[in-house]
Structure formats: structure tokens, C-alpha cells
Task: structure prediction
Amino acid sequence: MKIHARLLATAAALAVLTAAVHGQTLKAADVHPAGYPTVVAVESMGKKLDAATQGRIKFQMFPGSVLGGEKEMIEQTQVGAIQLLRTSLGPVGPVVPEVNVFNMPFVFRNPAHMRAVIDGPIGQEMLDKISASPARLVALAWMDGGSRSLYTKKPVRKPEDLKGQKIRMMGNPLFVDTMNAMGGNGISMGYGEVFTAIQTGVVDGAENNPPSLFTANHFQAGAKYYTQTNHLIIPEILVMSKVTWDKLSAADQALVKKFSREAQLEQRTLWDQYVVDSVAKLKAAGVEFIEIDNKPFFDATVPVRAKYGAQFADLMKRIEAVK
Ligand code: GTR
Result:
């Protein structure tokens, strides 16, 4: 019995030692809180990796921006301080300019069109472009970010209503230009600063999808009018630091790819339900959804697509042709 116990203790000590030598913990990060579809899907990926490698690859999720804003987290992933990151493509644009074709206003007709594009050859090409770029990010899978609309303190129905209003946009000059073209003043700012900025009047509103508006509580800071502009439909992405990727064996890389793909599908299912629930909760909380014809906003942003889209002319035609 005693020998058995000692053997067990030795085995346990050896396991710890082996993990220390060969094992590793992947730090994953997200600006969204626990329970958000992206966080849940990436957590399941981590559990699968742990199980498939008998604990050799461990996983820890840092949700809710605890490791920094999205821009800072992208930088940390590039240098390998964060190993896995779920991010919007918005702030990836300044680092990998090729992704900006997906960041343009009204480039997708609706979220279903966006999904058809990312699920097809164009989506795969874009993942490959990111991985091949000098940004040191390995693009593993797409995530869904739905459709972004405007929310403000005063109701907005047409571009003229945005005159003089400061609207927070994600950190990418393309978005500031988009808001300026839509009639407002685009102010670029990190996600974590938006609540206080609305509350203190530093900005008059922002724009996002219903799940983000709901979980970040921006309506409680005073932006209660949600105008259905649907001006940006930006896919999101799961990336691994190239520093980490290069240290994995080919077999482990294959596992990471397989489970990332599964995370993409899981997130999509969770996302659809989360959008429905968020819309219901926002309405119950008194947020007024303003239905509009968004054509004037589409028309107002023609120059933005012309300016940023010129370099992607062929790709834009292919995107448009996707049914
Ligand atoms: C959300 C997106 C986040 C972040 C945020 C923002 O919709 O999921 O990754 O980009 O928007 O506006 O900063």
C-alpha cells in the first residue's frame, strides 16, 4: 500500500515535471465577457485541445478585456504574450491592410451574404493572406459579428440628423471616414472607453451589433436610440500568435485547426440565438429600435468605398457575385 502510494506520488510529480518541460498553457483573450458566444466557443476549443493532448496543451481564457483593449491585445498576440485572440477584423486593418475589403461600409448585402463569402474560397484566401502577412498572426477561423448599427442619445433617421454628433468608431481610419461620410463626426476609441465617453458626453453615440450593445450596457450610459443603419457587417476572427504556432508540432497544429473550425461552427449557432435574445432584452430595457430605409446612408458612403475599394476592385466584384 505504502509503496503504491509512493509510486503514485512519484508518477504525479513526474507528470507535473513533464508538463513543465513539454506542456504549455495557451492564454486566450477576448474583449467580451464570459458567456458571450465567442468566449464560449473558444473555451470549448480549449477543453478539446486539453483532452486530445492528455493535458499537454492547457488553456486559459481571459475574457472581458482583462488583458487590455483589442488593439493592445492584437499587439500582444503578435509578440506571443497572448497565444489565442478572438478579435474583430476592424482593428486588424491597420496591421493587415488586405482585410480592409471586409471592413468597408455596405460591402456585404446582409449577414447571410457575409457568411456565404467567408465560407467560400474568398474566406479561405483571406485567412491565408492574414497568415502569410508580416503581422505574425495565424488566422485559424472566422467568427460572426452580425451587423452594426448606430446608437445615439438623440434619435437619428437620416444622415442630416447626425450633423455635429460625435460617434465612437473602432480604431481604423476607414471607420472614421465612414462615419464622417454618414454625416457625423467619427471619433476612434477603444471599446472599453465607450461607456464613460457616452455618459460624460465625450461622444454622443457609437455603433455596434445588438449583443455588444447589450453586454457593454452602452444604452444605460444614455444611448437609447438604435437606428437600423446596418452599415458595417464585419466578420470576426480567431488568430494564434505565430510565435506559438511555430513551436507546435505538425500534429498539434492540425488539432488546433480542427478544433478552431469546430469553434467557428459552434459560435455561429450560439450567435444567432444571442442576437435574438439581445434584441428582446434591449427592447425590454427601453431601447427604441428605429427602422429606416438605409439607402441614404449607403449612398453617402459611396466615396468611402471608392477611396478604400480601388485597390480591391476585382475582389469586390467577386464578393458582390457571391449569392
Ligand atoms: C464588437 C466586436 C469586438 C470589438 C467591439 C468594438 O462587436 O465583437 O471584437 O471590436 O465590437 O466595437 O470595439
Remarks:
- Confidence is low (pLDDT under 50) at residues 7-21.
